[in-house]
Amino acid sequence: MKLLDVKNLKTYFETKNGLVKAVDDVSFSLDYGKAVGIAGESGCGKTTTALSITKLLPENAKIFGGEIFLEQEDLLKLDDVSLRKKRWKDISIIFQGAMNALNPVMRIGEQIAEVIVLHEGLTFNQGLKRAEELFSLVEIKSDRIRSYPHEFSGGMKQRAMIAMALACNPKIIIGDEPTTALDVMVQAQILDLIDKLRKEFKMGFILITHDLSILGETCDDLIIMYAGKIVEKGSIEDIFNNAAHPYTMKLLKSFPDIHGEKVISPAIPGFPPNLLSLPTGCKFHPRCEHAVERCRIEEPELRRISDNHFVSCHFGGIYHE
Ligand code: SF4
Question: What is the sign, positive or negative, of the torsion defined by CA atoms of 20, 287, 7, 70?
Fold first, then answer.
């Protein structure tokens, strides 16, 4: 049994200009203790995928189809009250700059205790005790639960948010750019910490970021999204060593290689498409140097090219850059 199984998820936004297919037929799964990364340019559907799992979508967004199984339960079939109980307890989410969400006039430990009281039914004092333990886990001195947010550095506040995300021993943590606002040293410490906790508690971790180097360090599997669809997915080795989609190849090339020659990394030509008027055929064809007539007419299927490696391209890696 998978910890999380997302099947054919379709999340669309209803706008005055029409329907925006932000997540279109997305499927992936996550095992206990594993980490999956989701990458792609802004607007590719990464965050909407995460928000769909927790059903924390904006008002004009609607899930038009699909299933999201957490173990054996389809989250999309739950009513709001049941789903609210799952948040924090089964699935926690850490947003970019989540540290700014801390209440500035309340001690941090009390804010964590509140979550524990609400979801675990413990007393407030028991919640504070648990907050102390969580602070030790995220390597902050336990007596700092009495501090206010302004007494913490950015890195400490983000650690406190991770402590809060762990408060109810969730089965899955979703990090949506959880370290983007932090400097690289603190970023590395936070990701190491999540990695350690994930392995220790067999939690699943979904990491959303545009930074492929972080994903390469942290994840077991990787999903590349473009214009609301998965264009490639596979293990980290599949994607980093045998990328098969021209978009993935370009994404990888646009990141500097610290061991390589000192050169300016090439940008991906053009822009992501307007989701209100998508290109026909393959959505990537206007930016793809391998595009042929067929690409402009026929949309490629996501197909398996090896064990766990899938690609949505008519030529699936059989061309040369
Ligand atoms: Fe490029 Fe055609 Fe493959 Fe799309 S289907 S990625 S346009 S080669």
Answer: negative
What the block records as the tokens of 95 is: 């947003």
112-148 pLDDT per residue, tens: 999 999 888 899 999 999 999 999 888 899 999 999 9
Amino acid at 114: E
Instruction: Give 233-245 as a DSSP string.
Output: EEEHHHHHHH--S
pLDDT at 233: 98
Mean pLDDT value across the chain: 91
* Opening angle at CA 290, ends 302 and 318, nearest 5: 60
Q: How far apart are CA 160 and CA 158, in angstroms?
A: 5
Q: How far is the CA of 30 from the centre of ligand 1 (A)?
A: 28
Query: Long-range contacts of range 71-75, CB-CB < 8 Å, 24 or more positions apart?
Result: 71/1, 71/2, 71/3, 71/171, 72/1
Q: Which atom of ligand 1 has the smallest separation from the CA of 292?
A: 2
Interval between CA 277 and ligand 1 midpoint (Å): 18
Give pLDDT, residue 139. Answer: 86
Which residue's CA is the nearest one to ligand 1's atom 5?
Answer: 313
Q: How many CB atoms lie within 10 A of CB 183?
A: 10
Q: Which residues line ligand 1 (CB under 6 A)?
A: 245-246, 282, 284-285, 288, 290-291, 295, 300, 313-315
Cα atoms found within 13 Å of the Cα of residue 268, Cβ hemisphere only: 21
Residue 190's H or E segment, with its range, is: helix 184-201
Q: Provide the whole-model pTM.
A: 0.91
